[in-house]
AMP-binding protein (Pseudonocardia xinjiangensis), 502 residues
Amino acid sequence: MAYRADEGSVRLSYAEYAGHVERFAGALYELGVRPGDVVACQLPNWWQAQALLLAATRLEAVAAPIMTTIRPRELERMLRLLGASVCVTVDEWAGFGHAAALGEIAHRLPELRHRVVIGEPADGEIDFRSFFEETPWEGCHPVALDDAWEDPDCVALVLFTSGTSGEPKGALHTQNTMYASAISVGDVHDFGRDSVRFTPHALMHIVGQDNALAVLLAGASMVLLDDWSGGLGLRVLAGSGTTDLVAGPSFVHDVIAAIGGKPACLPALRTVRCVGTTVPKQLVPQVSGVLGARLLSGWGMTEIGTGTVTRSDDPPDWAAHSDGRPVMGMELDLRSVTEITKDRPGRLFVRGSGVCLATVGRDSGELTVTAEHDDGWYDTGDLAVPDGRGGIRLMGRAGDRIGGVFMIPVGDVESELLKNPGVEDVALVGYPESDGGELACAVVVPATEPPVTLDELRTYLADQGMTEWYLPSRVEYVDALPRNGNGKVRKELLRRWLVDTA
């Protein structure tokens, strides 16, 4: 089921969906798409988006989903790097003219042969609805289902990282790496044909792709929503009979806020799996008390898909203390030159079947083949400690760490600050001090007027028994924290802002 904020809902059976995939594959073939060609797609969470990506795979082409938040400067770099021959986009979305922007850069992209638009196409653009949806291209491409063959270890999907800690990279995934990631969650969670999974994350992102493939492999039902608010998300949860919600903590918080903290009537909802960032501790009882579901946590990234998940045999509140154990086919390695403690977490490396074949720099074009470095171990850039049950607890990104020899446990401090009634939202960010060290600033979205003061925050944390040098030495106030499309706080923007305002 696909919900569009402006048009209601659309239901598609598996047979109907498969028919669209075949039709779209025929349309792409008519546009000259052949094995190895790159088909870029920049679309909202509409049913056509995933069918199109599957159609590209059907032709053994390379699918390249791109977030709708990406603007022309970055889009041009991505399309040039990939040598995309077809780009499918929307005429306008969230107040931005995507089709017009693509048209303005197209003349600088000689390999881009076709621009396809869902909506109102202009001159030189192909109307998706008439060419892809309404023209019966089924059977027009020479790849028959019975004798189709493809190499599952060839690059089939390119997904770009957000670049919040460095140059954005394209993660080159194969059908095997994506399959390994998608099947791993079903291996440990009760997920089958009677399941209805909803994620507000973009189909153009690894979470959306991982979710969509997991649903197809299980024969389950998938729910899409093209626009987000807590109230709309709540209506979709109730109206779709969702059994499993997969969402970052900020999305879950929005739903709970829309309910007003009172228990909701969502009898079908069994689990809420938080992904993307560490779960704030207070969210665990809220999910249980308000949504009536169990909260599970998990960690992954664009380059590896799903890495860890908590399980049903873990303690009920374990998501507040752990990001889970490694999934099937995934190995973890915490590395440090000293003993690993909460104050001195280890750097997290992973190796396994879901790790991408290679990465390529969006701007530099530098290609790094995973298997050719460190015996296949991939440096995630994350810092973590053991959770005591064979899993890990993330302590932040190496680029986000605050401190020197001893590191401030950013996630723990943020979780405690969020419990303060004067704090609506918060990010702990490092800023340089005069002697060359680094101190912590609490960037706060205040919940009260006047806003909570630095002394009040420090006293509050101290009263919780928190180590003194963990406490912020500066506070700044903002109306909202800058977040990317998956709800992660863009701390690199806050760090630059703190330096400029020092």
Notes: The chain has three domains: 2-150, 174-333+389-398, 410-500.
